[in-house]
From TrEMBL:
Protein's UniProt keywords contain Ion transport: yes
Keyword field contains Membrane: yes
Cellular component, GO annotation: mitochondrial outer membrane; pore complex
Superkingdom: Eukaryota
Protein's recorded name: Voltage-dependent anion-selective channel protein
InterPro entries reported in the protein's UniProt record: Porin_dom_sf (IPR023614), Porin_Euk (IPR001925), Porin_Euk/Tom40 (IPR027246)
Assigned protein family: Belongs to the eukaryotic mitochondrial porin (TC 1.B.8.1) family.
Localisation per UniProt entry: Membrane
Job description of the protein: Forms a channel through the cell membrane that allows diffusion of small hydrophilic molecules. The channel adopts an open conformation at low or zero membrane potential and a closed conformation at potentials above 30-40 mV. The open state has a weak anion selectivity whereas the closed state is cation-selective.
Keyword set, alphabetical order: Ion transport, Membrane, Porin, Transmembrane, Transmembrane beta strand, Transport
UniProt-recorded Gene Ontology molecular function terms: porin activity; voltage-gated monoatomic anion channel activity
Species this chain originates from: Nicotiana attenuata (Coyote tobacco)
Length: 276
């Protein structure tokens, strides 16, 4: 467990990972290779129905500087340069996409024992400025996430979050969409030996007066095999099994059933990640 409160994106992350991470109904294949000079090349393919998407990511690490260059099937190029620990607790990230000239962005993150700050600004004439900050400790933290569009002179995003962490329990509360959505999440480790955990997320929309409830669990059958399941109040039930058949190489099978429309066929997804 870290000493500080982390970044705003860390609030509720353990519950989100339990409930949503690795679930999919598409087919995905990822393979990573390493050159003798230390360059990591990751090729990915994703089949969504009749659509096939692919990209190639090249990563080069040189001391505390990491450069990522990704090219997809539409010839879009995304470049990200990360400078880690230029000063204690400081990380700088520069990213831009070609041919989208307005996508260039500079982000600075700073982690402290009692605060976590992330601020970014678009490198354009009228940029969008984003600021998120968290204060507290690794036990209790309070944060906010704001975006300001200088072109229209208005706040486009205003969120707030609260997180409480105990030895085996994490609870969080988020107010999103400029106060229109209230979300509460819960993550509890039942058995550390088998990584058995349960989680839940409840979201209420004030504008529509609708509630969305999702509950899930995970369990480690053995040190290499994990099963997960989730269900929500809309009747969607999902399950997956993930096996690490060699270090860092994962094979995942997931499925989804609509319990309120059993006449519809179930959806299945496959994901294969290969690393040397």
């Amino acid at each position: 467990m870290g000493k500080g409160p982390g970044l705003y994106s860390d609030i509720g992350k353990r519950a989100r990972d339990l409930l949503y991470r690795d679930y999919q109904t598409d087919h995905k294949f990822t393979i990573t290779t390493y050159s003798p000079t230390g360059v990591a090349i990751t090729s990915s393919g994703l089949k969504k129905g009749d659509l096939f998407l692919a990209d190639v990511n090249t990563q080069l690490k040189n001391k505390n500087v990491t450069t990522d260059i990704k090219v997809d099937t539409n010839s879009n190029l995304l470049a990200t340069v990360t400078v880690d620990e230029a000063a204690p607790g400081l990380k700088t990230i520069l990213s831009f996409r070609i041919p989208d000239q307005s996508s260039a962005k500079l982000e600075v993150q700073y982690l402290h024992d009692y605060a976590g700050i992330s601020t970014s600004i678009g490198l354009t004439a009228n940029p969008i400025v984003n600021f998120s900050g968290v204060v507290g400790t690794n036990l209790l933290s309070l944060g906010t996430d704001l975006s300001f569009d200088t072109k229209v002179g208005a706040i486009t995003k205003c969120n707030a979050g609260l997180s409480f962490t105990n030895t085996d329990l994490i609870a969080s509360l988020n107010l999103n969409d400029k106060g229109d959505a209230l979300s509460a999440s819960y993550y509890h480790i039942v058995s550390p030996l088998t990584m058995t955990a349960v989680g839940a997320e409840v979201t209420h929309s004030f504008s529509t007066n609708e509630n969305t409830i999702t509950v899930g669990t995970q369990h480690q059958l053995d040190p290499l095999t994990t099963v997960k399941a989730r269900v929500n109040n809309l009747g969607k039930a999902n399950a997956l099994i993930q096996h690490e058949w060699r270090p860092k190489s994962l094979f995942t099978i997931s499925g989804e059933v609509d319990t309120k429309a059993v006449d519809k066929s179930a959806k299945f997804g496959l994901a294969l990640a290969l690393k040397p």
